[in-house]
Amino acid sequence: FFSWWDCFKIEAEGEPPQLARLEASLAALGECGRHAEWVLPVAQHWRVPPAGVAALYSFTTEAFDVAPRNHGHRHSKAVCALYREALRRQVAMEIVCEEEICDGVLERFQALCLHDVRALPAGVKAIIERFAAAGGLVLTDPDYLYTDGWHPGARVEVAGALALAPSSMAWLLRDRHPPAVTADNDDVTVRRLTAGGLDYLVVVNNFPDRYWGMTYSYGCRDDNYRRAALVRDEPARVRLRFADPGRTLYDLASGEPLGSTADPLDLELGPSAGRVLAMLPAGRACLTVRAAAAIRCGEALPCAIEMRDGNGVRLRGAFAVRA
Predict the structure, then answer these.
(1) What is the mean pLDDT of residues 121-136?
(2) Cβ contact 247:240 at 8 Å
(3) For residue 247, what are the contacts with CB-CB under 8 A and spacing of at least 6?
(4) For 234-274, how does the pLDDT look when each residue is reduced to its tens digit (9 = 90+)?
(5) Quick one: angle between helices 166-176 and 74-88, nearest 10?
(6) Where are the beta strands (DSSP E) in the chain?
């Protein structure tokens, strides 16, 4: 809960108590970044698997909220809140905009969420209704009169849509689109990513997300500090269950085998801590290094480094190798 805005001001003012606060915050950031040497070389190869679920960010609704009060940011916050709810339920979701719907993006999805969408261009609404008529699942908010008291007549009626609260949307989508892994702790987020033919799970203790939406002041640091003092960052325990029982789990940082996906996996995560797990199709993996038998003094030694399973088959994925 520390901004770079405050950082530069504190450095310029030079007050010892505030400088101590700054040093503590930078030390915490350094602790977060100490895994960068092995995470970033792997993460640049990760890809997000295609999602079957989309949520609409409606610029029309955002513009609609500018008057009579300047709340043009309200819709963005509502869409982010829905996305965070989907993360808690391990629902893979992609946010799309109205222009993408006009370009045919809904052909890639089986479900569309219209959370806090209170104004739409007629052409976009017609495309969404055709999507619903063709069998696509469209979810809308149940009560616009409650969600928008400033525009009591504002609502978008979509033929064939199912009205649900955002939390119910996430549960329904989880049932309709079973995730590769589920977690029994709402404070822990699990993201599935891919590289080559392998799956990776990024498991994060996101306990402070309980305080999401807290007001930030650009004018008064003391107000920010008082709010920051309310934020707790606690350890978390989580049990993961896997849809595919035929994989072997490894900790990507240490290479430690963690068992089979046929069994639940229990993890203990420190405050704001995370683990990266690799799901391999084989029960055993080993690193092989091939290099020239001899080189002349001063020459570079070219090496070929591969990860292979117990049968010698190369595993196509992204791994961090530390000397």
Answers:
(1) 95
(2) no
(3) 199, 260, 261, 279, 280, 281
(4) 999 999 999 999 899 999 888 889 999 999 999 999 988 89
(5) 40
(6) 53-57, 93-97, 111-114, 137-140, 162-163, 181-183, 188-195, 198-205, 236-242, 248-251, 257-260, 265-269, 274-280, 285-291, 303-309
